[in-house]
Design goal:
mainly alpha, three-stranded parallel beta sheet, 3 strands, rod-shaped
């Protein structure tokens, strides 16, 4: 993939007060790079060429830019990994609560059924409690069955982006890395 910018300020977030090497990418640049990477099949390698329309700044500028881009995506991968860990933690807690709630509703249903045996109303109430218990399991099961896949996909994508080769090409072509 190739990106053409007149100045590095177009590539990195100007609002970020961090030193250059630790700056975030500009949201538009990030969206463009991530969107492009999502179209490349997982087995295919990624590479980024940044064309700058101005001469070389300092001698180590290409290395600093390359490292800043890689560090940004490494940081995004770490953030997504933390989100995944938090999601699983929330899922475990929710599952524990839901299982206890389910058992409590089963027990309450049995107590009511024994106290008012033979009543049709008791059967309906007991079934309602059982359904309520299973509904309580909905969210924890949704977390463990479906919610984690997209986050894991983001982690893989960010890891690929963090390890991709990044080359800087200046308009005068006298210095590039």
């Amino acid at each position: 993939m190739e990106v053409r910018v007149a100045d590095l300020r177009q590539l990195f977030n100007r609002m970020d007060p961090s030193p250059f090497r630790e700056r975030d990418l500009d949201p538009s640049a990030e969206e463009f790079i991530v969107g492009w990477a999502q179209t490349v099949p997982a087995g295919n390698p990624l590479a980024l060429v940044v064309h700058l329309e101005r001469p070389v700044g300092s001698a180590d500028e290409p290395v600093v830019i390359r490292d800043a881009i890689r560090d940004f995506f490494r940081h995004e991968s770490d953030r997504a990994t933390r989100r995944l860990r938090q999601l699983f933690q929330r899922g475990r807690i929710s599952l524990g609560i839901a299982v206890l709630f389910l058992f409590a509703l089963f027990a309450i249903g049995d107590v009511i059924a024994n106290a008012m045996a033979g009543s049709r109303f008791v059967d309906v109430l007991r079934e309602g409690l059982v359904i309520g218990g299973w509904v309580a399991m909905w969210r924890p099961l949704e977390i463990f069955l479906y919610d984690w896949w997209p986050i894991r996909g983001q982690i893989r994508l960010y890891d690929r982006l963090a390890s991709m080769p990044v080359r800087i090409v200046y308009s005068d072509e006298s210095a590039s890395i």
